[in-house]
Structure formats: C-alpha cells, structure tokens
Amino acid sequence: MAPTVVLYETIPPDLLALLEQNCDLTFVESLQSVYQADLQTLLANAEGMIGVKDKIGPEILDLAPKLKVISTISVGYDKFDVADLSKRNIMLMHTPDVLTETTADTIFMLILCSARRAVELNDMIRQSQWHDDIGAEYFGTDVHGKKLGILGMGRIGSAVAKRAYGGFNMEILYYSRSVNERAQKDFQAQRFSLNHVLAESDFVCVTLPLSEQTRKLIGPKELALMKPGAFLINGGRGPIIDERALIEALQKGIIKGAGLDVYEQEPLSGDSPLVDMANVITLPHVGSATHETRYAMAECAVKNLLAALTERTSVNCVNPEVIDRVSSY
Ligand code: DGY
User: Fold this and answer.
1) pTM of the full predicted structure?
2) pLDDT category, 37, cuts 50, 70, 90?
C-alpha cells in the first residue's frame, strides 16, 4: 500500500506528480494554516512528512504516531530536535551537496558587495546623487590577495575557499573542529584557533551550522579581536553571531562592515538598526535561492523521502542510528 504522506510546502508540479504517483498524498500550504482538530486528522496516519517552513516540534509529533520519515527541503536541520526524533524512531532526511555551490556564490557575492560597497553606491545613483567622479569617501576595499578566514570548513566553506584561492588569490585561514586535508592541499588553507582566524583575517565568513556549540560563538570579545578594517560575512545561521554585539561593533567602528544573509530572528524586522547601516548588506536568507538550486533541493527531498520510506537508506539521513533500530517498514 502507498505510504501516507503530508506535504507542507509548494513544490514544482513534476515533483508533486512524483509524490502523488508513489504516495497517498495530502498537501497543505503550511501546517500553521491547519486548525488543531484538522491537524490531528491530517497527521493521524502520516508515515512521511516533507516541507521546510514549519517548525516540527513535540506538539506536532505527538499527533503523528505512525510517522517514520521527515524530509526537510534544506541542508540545515537546526529547527529539529534530532535526539527527540531518534527517540521516536523517526528518520530525518536533508539536502546536502545540491546547494553547496549556489550558497558559496551568495557568500562570495556578500564579500565582494560589502568590500566594494555595491549596494551603497547603487543607492547613491538611485537617489540621483552621482554628480561627478566619486571621491575617496566612496572608495572600497580590495578583495583579491587578502586573507579570508572561514569559520567551518565543510562543503560550503570549501566551496568558498575554492573561489577565494583560485579566483582571487586569497590566503585561506580556517577554524574547524576537524582538519580538512583536501582544503589544506587544494587551497593551501591553514587551520588555526578561532581567535587567531578572527585577528588575522581581512574577511571572516561564517559557514558553520547552528548547534549548542556554535550559538553566539561570535560575541563582543570575538568581534573586538577583528581588524578595524575587516568585514564579517554570515551565510551560516544568524544565532551564531550575537547580533546586538555586531550592531555595536559596526556602530563603534570596531569592524568595517558586514554582509548578512541570516539573522537571530527571521524575517529580520525593518526596525533593526542593521537595515539602515550603510556598511551593512542584508539579504533575506537567500543563500540557496536560485530557480535551479531550489528545484534541485525539492527534487533531492522528494527522492530522500521515497528512498527512506521504501529502502530505509542512510544517504542524506541525519540520524542513521534509527535505521538499525527499526526492523521493518
Ligand atoms: C538550508 O538549506 O539550510 C538553507 O539555509 C535554506 O534554508
């Protein structure tokens, strides 16, 4: 019998059709839009769930006693309590690899746009303020040949290093729990302590996942270690940087600028001081947001779900320990 699946995200029509062919599918735009009583009915028989926007905590899981697989259309899974899912024998699937290059492009765009003040200068023209050759007060900072500090040398960190080393002749420093031999060999990346990377780099890029170890990793003390001419780029997760400390560091000129794609609270409020700072570029969490990559992520998540429901595959499974415990699906 086809497994019962709840889809809580809009996905491309061909992928929707693939799910419909293989599952007894119910689609809701978001779980939040479903009334509590209906939610109970919706989830009572669900064996699989697929989506990304909604947070799936115990209140949802308690309504889904038959749930075997959640397939998130994201690489990050900090919205989930993985230990709780494992305790409930629910496999969590995610979408690594397919978004690596696009997210690295976004991070590199933030480096370049911050350093060369692209948004600020664009605004100048839009406000009809380009009257003559711009003066030194609008000059930017070189990127090529500078030192790039990468916090987290995983897939995305390595893809940023590849661009920086191969295309911009940058020196790569990194901070990571483990040695990345490939990055050391291919990009001459050198691993140091967090403090050393912060103190030495002209650009510091956060590409770490959010965990209890990385939450507020960058606070006032860490920001104070950075060079006054340095830029901080965050393409990882917002809560890794203490946002109030960052605002203060930018206001006081402790660092020169920031390029941000992620925030402590998302969506970022229009009232945030970050929004009005000329030396800050704010993007609305778009690291992977291209047509090609968002399609690839949805496709990967659909295939992950079907594979997990039928073969209990460990590929792209966040908590493979569950597979051995569940004897048969
Ligand atoms: C991810 O996949 O984790 C990206 O941050 C998009 O949410």
Assistant:
1) 0.95
2) confident
